[in-house]
Amino acid sequence: MKWPNHGGQPETIKQLFKLKEDVHIHDFSANLNPLGPPAWLEEEISNQYHTITSYPEPSYLKCSISVAAHESIDPNMLLLTNGGAEAIFLIAKYFENLKAMVVHPTFMEYERACKHYHISVEQIMFEQENEFGLPIQTMCEKLKETDVIFLCRPNNPTGTVINERDLLLLLEEGKKTGTSVVVDEAFVNFLPASVPSLSSWLATYPNLILLRSLTKMYTIPGLRIGYIMANPLIINALRDDQIPWSINSIVDAIVPKLLDDVQFVERTKDWLSEQSQYVYKKLASIDFYHSPSQVNFYLLRDKKQPHRTEELFHFLLQNGILTRHTHNFKGLNGDFLRLAIRSKEENERLLMILQKWRNET
Ligand SMILES: Cc1ncc(COP(=O)(O)O)c(C=O)c1O
Q1: Domain of 138?
Q2: 178 Cα: distance to centroid of ligand 1 (angstroms)
Q3: Which of 49, 122, 184, 301 has the least C-beta neighbours within 10 A?
């Protein structure tokens, strides 16, 4: 079976599993915000229509200043990118031919980017038995031979958040061994206020590189916008390697407005807090494991029948629920499914189908 590499592809899955075209699928496989995009965005995009007849200003100065102000950093510590994906590949280019460490299970594009730029990768595993914590001792022992560590925080697919103590240790030791720490914060704005971004650490740690994406929070995978935050020397080098006009003029104009919409993010956090509590409580009551996620997706496994995950995937699909398989997440081997937290109605439907699975199997 050739499983798709990413979630959010209901049409491909329908063809793969020969489902009828008109079957309605609830897509729990992509980890996008179900409240988005913000309601005003459609009109604002058409208001910016006139910008497409000119090249964007190549340094994106106005937009960069506004994003930097939002992050409370200097604009020369910021580079706008064509989504988080371009950010990952630009950073890999910066470490071309060197040695990286990637902690799995995690987003597969770090390894793909490393391969593309001939970076050798040491694969380390999160400690599944320890709530997917970092094997910090092992990592520290290997720092001398490591030029860059790729971390995802919150991590895709587990939704877990690496603790600050471990990160501080890696950054401190990394200063001594010349190791940079890349932290992909694509999902950081789903976290509760008690777990802040690491942007305030950039001033202390020149070996810290942060990646962001606006894709997930604002449900705009088609627009392509992300950014990198790092010390100015790194940012300058990355800018030299970036394709000219990588960000289109419409995006350039609307990013400041997206970041200004604080209420949208707050509404999202309220929905997430309410719905995740509801979903996790119910899952526990019908004997399903969920990873200790702090964001809008989690790993699921049937505690009573842990080796029937593939059958569970098919059962859910036949009942109109698409989940994300985990065959291409190293260390998970398809043993879990990744699901998004969706709207109240969709979550209720999911839980009803899981109850049906419990009753019938
Ligand atoms: C952890 C992580 N980083 C980055 C990306 C890429 O985001 P973008 O769509 O902005 O390129 C994804 C997309 O799934 C992701 O899960």
Answers
A1: 55-260
A2: 27
A3: 49
Pairing mode, strands 288-290 and 297-302: antiparallel
Report, as an integer, the average pLDDT of 126-138: 96
Share of the chain above pLDDT 70, in %: 98
> Quick one: 113 and 233 in the same domain?
yes
CATH number reported for the structural domain that contains residue 287 in this entry: 3.90.1150.10
Of ligand 1's listed atoms, the one at least distance from the Cα of 213 is: 10
Q: Tell which of 230, 260, 290 closes a domain.
A: 260
Domain count, the chain: 2
Q: Is the pLDDT of residue 117 over 80?
A: yes
Interval between CA 112 and ligand 1 midpoint (Å): 13
Q: Give the CA count within 13 Å in the CB-facing half-sphere of 258.
A: 26
Could you tell me the CA-to-CA distances from 312 to 27, 30, 73, 298 in Å, in that order?
A: 15, 18, 46, 16
In what helix (H) or strand (E) does residue 11 lie, and over which residues does it extend?
Answer: helix 10-16
**Calpha distance 102→112 (Å, rounded):** 11
Q: Whose CA is nearest to atom 5 of ligand 1?
A: 84
- Pick the last residue of a domain from 260, 280, 309: 260
pLDDT recorded at residue 8: 66
State the distance from the centre of ligand 1 to the C-alpha of 277, rounded, in angstroms. 25
Q: What is the pLDDT of residue 22?
A: 74
Residue 222 in this model has a pLDDT that exceeds 80? yes
Average of per-residue pLDDT across 298-315: 97
